[in-house]
Design brief:
The protein is α+β, with helices and mostly antiparallel strands and 401 residues long. It contains eleven helices and 21 strands.
Length: 401
């Protein structure tokens, strides 16, 4: 199957696609083209599928059944060696002292001023081996540079690892069809090693969707095409569709998109992520002193949610929309979209701290004109993340027990 697909792939690619050797393709690239991808973007110097048709259809597929997403762009930085644990703690303010093998944690990597360089998922494979599963920035270079001067016994590399995300309420049933009932015992933010017909994998209960989901970390890119097809075949009885990470769902869930909602000029406290920074732990980390000073002095702006009035936004924002109050500039919208489920325009914004009160009325300058908006709590939907953690599933099973 793979050889045939490779021979026919050039005729399947729409003419408007332009590809070059300087941007890498994922091991699932040919499979996504076969399954109807209509548009790609670039993330971590790789092509990522961004459109299989209607974004609304993709959203409803995600929240009603399941979607399979090529997220090989979430490159892994492997840190190993005798000093690996000490070195990893130096990169992040999250206290890792109790982290166990097989556990994953959402962490922030900060620079010397406390700015956020990346917000990866950290996986602990062994006492001396970790992966940083990255969002979109060159952390391999940052970590490699630190390692050169840290004088610690660590090795830094990018392993041959390419994740897929299987997300949505039917994802658990699909995973059981593939791996048996054992997979149902995998807890939220934990992972295990598996094989599927000889294909080496690490599977975690994580994902960028705020829905029940799994990430499958393929450990040999040669198996990419066949792995995609095996998952799609197993998922057909459950309504599985090829898809892409949903802007609608991630904004509903208040999930950050690096370069949009966070960058090196934003710090954890501005994004209400102080829980991920332990300034009292004994261990030192890059940016600790700066973050202590920021915490002591307070932040000048905060991330808030906005409900924007007016007709449905026709597309997510592609620029930062100015936010004003009584004619004065107070901040910017970083991510905005229309939610067909909530039937509202929703947005994440960074505004002056004094203007961040729930219920505060503001104005947003959009391509559709100046629109009234109100500051509201985030997340917009399922604030306790009971869908992603499986809490609602557990409650349902108990009720039918």
């Amino acid at each position: 199957m793979k050889n045939t697909a490779s021979n026919n792939i050039s005729s399947a690619i729409p003419e408007q696609f332009g590809f070059g050797t300087q941007i890498r393709k994922s091991p699932y690239f040919e499979a996504t083209v076969r399954w109807g991808v209509k548009q790609f973007s670039v993330y971590n110097h790789m092509y990522i599928p961004r459109d299989f048709g209607s974004p609304d259809d993709n959203f409803w597929n995600l929240v009603n059944t399941a979607i399979l997403c090529d997220v090989a762009v979430e490159r892994q930085v492997e840190i190993s060696g005798p000093d690996a644990a000490y070195f990893v703690q130096m990169l992040t303010g999250r206290n890792l002292s109790q982290m166990q093998i097989g556990q994953a944690k959402y962490v922030l990597i900060t620079n010397e001023t406390g700015g956020i360089l990346n917000d990866p998922i950290l996986l602990k494979l062994a006492e001396d081996q970790f992966w940083l599963s990255l969002s979109d920035s060159d952390i391999l270079l940052w970590v490699s540079g630190i390692a050169v001067f840290a004088k610690m016994d660590v090795q830094i590399r990018e392993p041959d690892v390419s994740p897929l995300q299987l997300q949505g309420p039917e994802s658990g049933n699909i995973m059981e069809a593939l791996f048996g009932s054992d997979i149902s015992t995998l807890n939220y933010y934990w992972f295990r090693e598996y094989e599927l017909d000889g294909i080496p994998l690490i599977i975690s209960r994580t994902g960028w969707s705020s829905e029940l989901g799994y990430e499958l970390f393929l450990r040999d890119s040669a198996h990419g095409d066949i792995l995609w097809e095996k998952i799609m075949a197993a998922g057909q009885p459950f309504g599985l569709k090829p898809g892409h990470t949903s802007t609608i769902r991630r904004i509903e869930g208040g999930m950050l998109s690096y370069h949009a909602d966070a960058n090196s000029e934003t710090n954890p406290f501005e994004l209400n992520l102080g829980r991920l920074v332990d300034l009292e732990m004994e261990a030192d980390f890059i940016g600790k002193l700066a973050l202590k000073q920021i915490q002591a002095s307070g932040v000048q702006r905060l991330q808030v949610g906005l409900e924007i009035q007016g007709s449905p936004l026709t597309q997510p924002n592609t620029t930062f929309w100015p936010v004003s109050s009584k004619g004065e500039s107070i901040g910017k919208v970083t991510s905005a979209v229309y939610s067909p489920r909530l039937e509202k325009n929703i947005a994440l914004a960074l505004v002056e701290t004094a203007q961040a009160t729930i219920g505060h009325q503001v104005t947003v300058e959009t391509p559709q004109g100046d629109l009234a908006a109100e500051v509201v709590p985030v997340p917009f939907y399922d604030p306790r993340k009971s869908l992603a953690s499986g809490a609602k599933l557990i409650q349902k099973e108990t009720a039918h027990g």
